[in-house]
Amino acid sequence: MVPLLLVLLLALILFGAGFAVKVLWWVAVAVLVIWLLGFVMRSADGGGSRGRWYRW
User: Fold this and answer.
1) 34-47, pLDDT tens digit by residue?
2) pLDDT (tens digit per residue) in 6-34
3) Residue 43 and residue 49: Cα distance in Å, rounded?
4) Phi/psi zone of residue 46: left (φ > 0), alpha (ψ -120 to 50 degrees), beta?
5) Alpha-carbon distance 27 to 20, whole Å?
6) Fewer CB atoms inside 10 Å of the end CB: C or N, the chain?
7) What single DSSP character describes residue 51?
8) CA distance 34 to 22
């Protein structure tokens, strides 16, 4: 019974890690799209404040 529980626990851990990695990939894609949109809008703006579209 204990080996079966260990295998199920390992499967749950690996599934959770895979899900977290997939979520992180989607977050990375969303950040990239937002950055690209800001870059395109900055270049179409004509360079208002020294070429930066963010407020850092």
Assistant:
1) 988 887 877 666 55
2) 988 888 888 888 888 888 999 999 999 99
3) 11
4) left
5) 10
6) C
7) T
8) 19
User: Structure pTM?
Assistant: 0.56
The residue ranges of DSSP E strands in 1-56, in sequence order, are: none
- Under DSSP, the state recorded for 30 is H
Please count the residues of the chain.
Answer: 56
Calpha distance 45→34 (Å, rounded): 16
At 25, list the tokens.
Answer: 């990939």
Phi/psi for 5 (5° steps) reads: -65, -40
Question: In angstroms, what CA-CA distances link 19 with 27, 42, 51?
Answer: 12, 35, 38
Amino acid at 41: M
